[in-house]
Amino acid sequence: MLYFNNCLVRQLLQFKFLPDDLEVKFVAYVISDECISCGACEPECPVEAISEEEDKFHIDPDICIDCGACEPVCPVEAISPE
Question: Among 21, 25, 27, 78, whose Cα sits 20 to 30 Å from the Cα of 64?
């Protein structure tokens, strides 16, 4: 199994540059329970993968393109790659 940046893999899949039998696993960023719901990460996401839930923010792994723009703005370092 190979791990790639989500954005790159989606582009390669779209243009059929990857073999059909290649198993692909998308890796997204996640927000831990350390999240203080400050919302600093949400406007940084270029694809709107971050949304507010009951007690913390959440990153939708199906939308996340693994750009990492959200990680450095978190004041409590609650965001990391999956």
Answer: 21
Class level of CATH domain 2-81: alpha beta
For the chain, strand residue ranges (E) read 2-4, 24-26, 29-31, 50-52, 57-59, 79-81
| Every domain of the chain and the residues it spans | 2-81
Residues 6+ apart with CB under 8 A from 51: 42, 57, 58, 60
**pTM for this predicted structure:** 0.71
Q: What is the pLDDT of residues 35-57, one digit of tens each?
A: 999 999 999 999 999 999 989 99
